[in-house]
Amino acid sequence: MFQLLQPLVHAIQPLLVPLCFLSAWFIVMLVGWSAWTATRDTVARGRQMHRIPCANCQFFTRDYHLKCTVRPSTALTEEAIGCPDYEPVTSAYTSKPQTYSRMQ
């Protein structure tokens, strides 16, 4: 079987080195492009998430069960960007969830 393919292998052998060289660099460029687009998309997503104003709103409760007293379904989501009920926290004091300790 190899006897039949030997002339074909010898005919394309001079082309194999440049072809492998170009293929290797093409793969390296694809990996670089993929890393670049992943980084770009991650930065864009991070910027979008930092535009959510809920953490600085006076109606934000910092409670897992009820995140916002006005619009609980959209709190901490992209829908909260541009919320018409947003009011920034006006005092330097922000209440923390009350913890109860056992009295002895």
Short description:
With 104 residues, the chain is an all-alpha fold.
Describe the structure.
The chain has 104 residues and is an all-alpha fold. 47% of the residues lie in helices and 0% in strands. It has one helix at 2-50. The mean pLDDT is 88.
Mean of residue pLDDT values: 88
Number of helices in the DSSP assignment: 1
N-to-C series of helices and strands: H
Helix content: 40-55%
Largest sheet: none
Residues in β-strands, percent:
under 5%
Low-confidence residue ranges: none
What is the gyration radius calculated from CA atoms? 30 Å
Ordered list of secondary-structure elements with their pairings:
Blueprint: H1 2-50
Main attributes?
single chain, 104 residues, mainly alpha, 1 helix, rod-shaped
